Each structure stands twice: as structure tokens, then as C-alpha cells.
Amino acid sequence: MAVLEIITAPHPVLERPARPVEPDEFGPELAKRVSDMAETMYAAPGVGLAAPQVSDPRRIVVLDPGEPEDRGRRFFALINPKIISRSERMIPWLETCLSVPEFEIEIQRHYQVQLEWQDVADGSTRTGWFEEFEAVIVQHEIDHLQGTILLDRSSRFKRNRYLKKVSKAKKKDQVIA
Ligand code: NI
User: Fold this and answer.
1) Ligand 1 centre from 7 Cα, in Å?
2) Which of 2, 154, 163, 172 has its CA 20 to 30 A from that of 10?
3) Ligand 1 centre from 142 Cα, in Å?
4) Mean pLDDT across 24-43
5) In a 3-state reduction of DSSP, which class is residue 49?
């Protein structure tokens, strides 16, 4: 297993829609990618990670909403996940993202979502309902697969202010290095 580098905004890989994992890609390599993504998520620490965040352009998501002591109890590896049903009920959630450090924004999410995905081991189709915090994570990670990050859901003012701050910090790094 390996901890992968997490890409931060602004970066083109975070803005491009991910492509499906093809049937012939299931196997040991995909399993390793998933376990590396899990290790990266736990090391961050985070509760979800989408493949574009580690420069992989495919529809792969890992998530684990549990507290550190519960790790693995609610771990999911979602290959080609797709939301197939949503509750009408919405909830506001204050979200953060590993790819947008030091940024938070409240987003209205569906309280429940039903997801269809493929199992990493054999490609078989699975479905399941996710609720509250888990549903928020699912919707956040599916956003990543569409090339949408928190900055895209914020006001133009807030987004520009953040990008200005990041570009200033990058310039400063260059001077020191
Ligand atoms: Ni994120």
C-alpha cells in the first residue's frame, strides 16, 4: 500500500469529468489502486476520496465515515458509482475538501441517496441507500467525478478570493525554494 499525493485546486484534473472503469480493468491493479486510495484517505485524514484527487481520471471512490476507532466498519469502495434515487428532503452541510484546503462552504444535499456501483473484486453490481453524513459524502465524491469541487458551488467572490490566496502562497513558496 502507498499514500498517494492529493492534488489541490486549481488543477485541470479536478475539473475534468472522470471516465468509467472498463470491464477489462478489474483485477489486482484496480484492487491496489483502491487500497492505496483508502490508505491515502485514512492518512489525510479524510472520510472520502475520489480518484481524480490522486490524478486518476476514473470513476473510483472510497469512503469511510467512521471515527478512527471504527475504521473499516463502514468502508466502501465504489467503482463506477451512480446516484439512482434521491430523497426530496434536503439537509444543509458545512463541507470541506482535501483538494481545497482551508475552505468550507455550506451546501444543501439530499438527505438520502440510493447508489448503484460495481464491486471492486468481481465487477458485480451493488446498490445501497446512504443517509445523512454518508449521503453527503457520496454526493460530494460524485461531484468530484463530474469535475465539480466546492469552489464551483461557492459564490464567485468567495471562489476568486480563495484562488487569489492560493496563487499568492504558491509565489511565496517559489521565492523560498
Ligand atoms: Ni473533496
Assistant:
1) 10
2) 2
3) 9
4) 97
5) strand
Task: State how far the Cα of 33 lies from the Cα of 24, in Å rounded to an integer.
Answer: 15
Report the length, in residues, of the chain.
177
pTM for the whole thing? Answer: 0.94
The domain locations on the chain are 12-176
Is 173 in a helix, a strand, or coil? Answer: helix
Strand 60-63, strand 100-110: pairing? unpaired
Rounded CA-CA distance 19/27 in Å is: 18
How far, in Å, from the CA of 69 to the mean position of ligand 1? 22
Measure 173 CA to ligand 1 centroid, in angstroms.
Answer: 24
In sequence order, what are the beta bridge partners of 100?
Answer: 97
The set of cell numbers assigned to 98 is 482535501
How does pLDDT run across 60-82, given as a tens digit for each residue? 999 999 888 888 889 999 999 99
- Quickly name the fold that domain 12-176 has: Peptide Deformylase (3.90.45)
With vertex at residue 12, the alpha carbon angle to CA 10 and CA 14, rounded to the nearest 5 degrees, is 75
Phi and psi torsions of 124, nearest 5°: -70, 155
Query: Among candidates 135, 40, 125, which has minimal Cα distance to 81?
Result: 125
